[in-house]
Amino acid sequence: MSASPPQAGRTSFSRHPHYYFEDGNLYIMVDDVLFNVHRSVFLATARLLHEHVPTWMGRSEHQPLYLRNISPRHFCKFLSLIYPQSVDETFTAEDWISVLEQSQKWGCSHIYAVAIAKLQSTAMEDALRIATWKRFGLDESQIARCYHAFGTRTQPISLAEGELMGMAMAMRLSALRDTVHQGVLQYLQEHTKGEHAGQVMGMQVDRLRDLVCRGLLVEFMRG
């Protein structure tokens, strides 16, 4: 964030249709979109506003607070939780991740908790969920099912998934998957002969992968 414009002399901007309040007194510029919200409302929600924003900053359209590394769309999603009756919003997983990031930056503990709860029930790829939980240091037990999914699937981790989760996590999950598959193979070799062959062959391989992976997850999550 900054008190000076990213590009000197830039005067072209538009007022946001929902979050430019005529009685607002905290002007915020995101890209080329100007927001005007209520400083007192923002202060009541964002305890770190005092530390990040001097009292003179954002007092007028000519000297707004500039926010970087965020889009107007994602800032709107954040504001919709501060002004919950102002506009009906639909959130994607990426929107909630952005809200989580903004609420952490501003010290909005209530919104931070809401974002975590919403992310738990929002559909997203396992790799993105793992990356998000690791990035924000969230409760790892909530993503055990994602580890399980990687450990039991037949296809290897893709390049995109590896880049999203990071090399270290991708390597650990690849090792988990290999260990699961080796465990299933060993079990089949040991139990598909003799009097137990019929019982073992009646078990689905997917079920075997599930059981082997569950047995390995406790140790995996300690690592």
UniProtKB/TrEMBL annotation:
Residue ranges constituting the BTB domain according to the UniProt record: 26-120
- List the Pfam families: BTB (PF00651)
- Note the InterPro entries from the entry: BTB/POZ_dom, SKP1/BTB/POZ_sf
Q: What is this protein's record name?
A: BTB domain-containing protein
Q: Which organism is it from?
A: Polyporus arcularius HHB13444
